[in-house]
Structures are given as structure tokens and as C-alpha cells.
Amino acid sequence: MQENLLGDMEMKGGNQPNPNLGYGNTEFPNADYPGYTPQQNPYGYPSAGYQPAGYPPPGPYQVQPGQAMPNQSGAAWMPLPAAIPNCPPGLEYLSQIDQILVHQQVELLEVLTGFETNNKYEIKNSMGQRVYFAAEENDCCTRNYCGPSRPFIMTIVDNTGREVIKLHRPCRCSACCFPCCLQKLEVQAPPGTVVGYIVQNWHPCLPKFTIQDERGQGVLKIRGPCIPCSCCADVNFEVKSMDESAVVGMISKQWTGSVKEIFTDSDNFGIQFPMDLDIKTKAVMLGACFLIDFMFFETKN
């Protein structure tokens, strides 16, 4: 009896396992992203195993947020943000970033034959996560006979294959001798809803543009160098206020190396803007990047 009583006391006084005080405090992925404040309710991600339009059919794998999709060159997608009131669907990504990287894909057929193909671009954030994918829609004759001056429609999709932005460039002139028919690009987000325009301004020497809202009112100005030539250095197009007294952003054509610059027309761009800039204006700046690429850097090599 006494031995049993002592045994019970030892069991009650023995060392008990300490609870894991850190359990349940796991940090939310990407919480260290600049300008992002972790929330109590994390963003809703697309379900595992989703299949964006135009990609290979699903196999025995599952796609988790932030991981690379199969056959996508190891590129990870930026996690899907929560919906924002009065924000065009799909533009929520732009609310969390102040820098965009635009990388044009190298087309093997174009390199080997000189045959102009539809341009395709990866649009990433500063962490290298893919935000959007852009693809030109054009016919063979227009691409190869009109060259860089060709009109085009550019469709931009997000990681679910949803069309979030559509760009429309009509057939216009860019020479200084035709000031009444200069370049213009229309930006729709979502497709069918105009959110702004890029309008070329006449100038005898400098490439100048105006970023307009959906009503055609000027919001920002873009000014490039006198000779936009990418020779061993970046080419910067400053984004300024309407009175051109302050620089609020930059569109930079990045030097990619002699081999790539000589033998391909594949270009890399960087876009910088304030974090709190209007989301629609950010989308129009993205459209301005494509117009600048076609006007000054889309050359046949």
C-alpha cells in the first residue's frame, strides 16, 4: 500500500512535456515583401492543381501557391492577393509592388530564320515571381511586312489564365513630319473597359508621351533620351508629373549583353513607380513599356 502511494506521488510530480510555445505562430509567406503588412486572414490562393489556360493538362502533381508550374522554366507565380474594392479584377497584384520586370522571351524560329513571330513577355516582381504573362496577337503578314510599326493587340493574363489587361495599338505614324497621326495605345482592364491611354507628343528630337486616364485627361508625362540607343548601357525614360517638375517613376530598357542584343530582338525592361500610385495608372505604365519597346527597340536582326 505504501509503495503504491509513493508511486502515485512520483507520477503526479514527474516532469510533464512542455507545450510548444511557438506552435501556431508560423509566419505568413512573403510577409517580408516590401510594402506588405501581414493580415489576420491571409489571402485566398487558387486551389492546388489549377490549370491556367494554354498550359499543359494537369498530371499527377499539385500546384501550390508560390511554386513553379510544370514546364515553366522554374518560374514561381506571385501569390494571388485579396480582392480590393473598386479595383479592376486582376490588378490587385499591382497594389503590392513598386517595381515590374518585363522580360521578352527569345523565339528560336525568329533567331534562326529572321521570321517575325508574335512577341511574348514574362512580367515579374522584384523577387522574380511571375505576376503576368503577355502575348501579342497578330497575323503573319502584319508582323513581317509592317515590322515594328505594326498595329497589335496584346493580351495579359494572370496565374489562373484570366485575361486582366488588353492593349490595343492602332496603325499610326511616328515620324516628326506627321504630327497629326502619332502613336497611341489604349489600355483596357478588364478587357472591354478602358482605363487609360498612352499618347505620343510631337517633338523634333525627344520621345515624349502623355499618360491619360479613361477620360483622356493627362495624368503623367514620359520623356526619353534624344537618341534611345541601347549600346552597352540602360536607356531610361523618365516618368514625370504633368508640369515635368518632379520625376515619379522610370521605364528602363536594360542592356542584356552583346550576343543577345545583336542576334535577337528580345528585350528586358524595368518599370518603377510609387507604391501608392493609382492601380489603373500602373497598368497604363505597363502598356507604355510595350509601346516604347515596339517603337524604339523592336528591330530586325
Automatic annotation (TrEMBL):
<protein>
    <recommendedName>
        <fullName>Phospholipid scramblase</fullName>
    </recommendedName>
</protein>
<dbReference type="GO" id="GO:0005886">
    <property type="term" value="C:plasma membrane"/>
</dbReference>
<dbReference type="GO" id="GO:0017121">
    <property type="term" value="P:plasma membrane phospholipid scrambling"/>
</dbReference>
<keyword id="KW-0449">Lipoprotein</keyword>
<dbReference type="GO" id="GO:0017128">
    <property type="term" value="F:phospholipid scramblase activity"/>
</dbReference>
<dbReference type="Pfam" id="PF03803">
    <property type="entry name" value="Scramblase"/>
</dbReference>
<keyword id="KW-0106">Calcium</keyword>
<dbReference type="InterPro" id="IPR025659">
    <property type="entry name" value="Tubby-like_C"/>
</dbReference>
<comment type="function">
    <text>May mediate accelerated ATP-independent bidirectional transbilayer migration of phospholipids upon binding calcium ions that results in a loss of phospholipid asymmetry in the plasma membrane.</text>
</comment>
<comment type="similarity">
    <text>Belongs to the phospholipid scramblase family.</text>
</comment>
<keyword id="KW-0564">Palmitate</keyword>
<dbReference type="InterPro" id="IPR005552">
    <property type="entry name" value="Scramblase"/>
</dbReference>
